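Thread: Newbie trying to understand structure tokens

Hi all, I'm a second-year student working on a class project, and my supervisor (Dr. K.) asked me to get a predicted structure for one chain before our next meeting. I've only ever worked with sequences, so writing a 3D structure as a token string is new to me. If someone could post the tokens and maybe explain what I'm looking at, I'd be very grateful. Here's the chain:
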Amino acid sequence: MREAGVTVALVLIVLFFCATAPYFATSGNFLKIFVQIAINTVLAAGMTFVILTGGIDLSVGSVLALCTVVGATIMTDERLSAGTSITLAFLACLGTGALCGAINGWVCEKWKLPSFIVTLGMLNIASGLARVVSNNSTISGLPQPFVEFGNLIFWGIFPSIFVIALAVVLIGWFILRFTVFGRFIFAIGTNEEAVRLSGHNPRAIKIAAFTISGLTAGIAAMVYLLRLNVGSPIAGIGYELNAIAAVIIGGTSLSGGKGSIIGTLVGACILQVLSTGLQLLGAEDNVKPIVIGTVIVLAVILDTYRNKFLRAMESRKGVQ
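---
Reply by user tm_fold:
Sure, no problem. This is what the structure looks like when written as tokens:
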């Protein structure tokens, strides 16, 4: 029901802009949308795991920036061949992101601290490390094969970076839908104490959720490098807010336990379609954040009423 609701909303928004915004219903515009949602989709996929457990990760934007400069530094090392540098950069980005996420989860669980505070601290730490690693400068000159792959377009409309984002979403969907670990993610968000009393370790699962969020930040860093061909210490500013917005608009409850990674993908699409459509309608840059912010608030309000409705239905079933 959650996925169906946001999907219908996306279709209605697309139809509205197709009818009102010039050049919206063109292959070139849809290609642009797919390019622009790739990074946010990858970040939001990992964020979904954390929010489903009832946590939040504010550090993904800065972790992305750190991973971009780490990856770009390796790929511009003249001592390495193009193939070797790309492989090492990919592994380094994933390792750096996963390590930052694991630290977030471990600190939260070790000292029972709110994830909001811990990840806010990691936001600043990763941002500072990105400036140190890059010497506060942009790193360019990435290998040509890497740049060429980033420019690939499949079937005339799907850029390579969007295909990567879809792959991340599908893997995340499979994990949440068909694995025991995925069931525990939902169970912890619903009732962590019940998971503990059943003999399982919620702490390890929550640390793993943060690790996945960091891992996807590393993948998003590679997508960023593919798209812009530079590593930047100021990359990712505000990206964590867009990722959280995509997750919430996609129907995942901030209280945890309810949601879908497919809904997250649709939420990311809604954000970008709104932004692009308003731009084509000639809306001022100051208006777009107002509209998108209003949509986010409405999504949270809708989630509140939806949860009340579901609880009422459950209580009626219990009475019967």
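A couple of things are worth pointing out once you decode it. The beta strands are 153-154, 158-159. DSSP finds twelve helices and two strands in the chain. Feel free to ask follow-ups in this thread.
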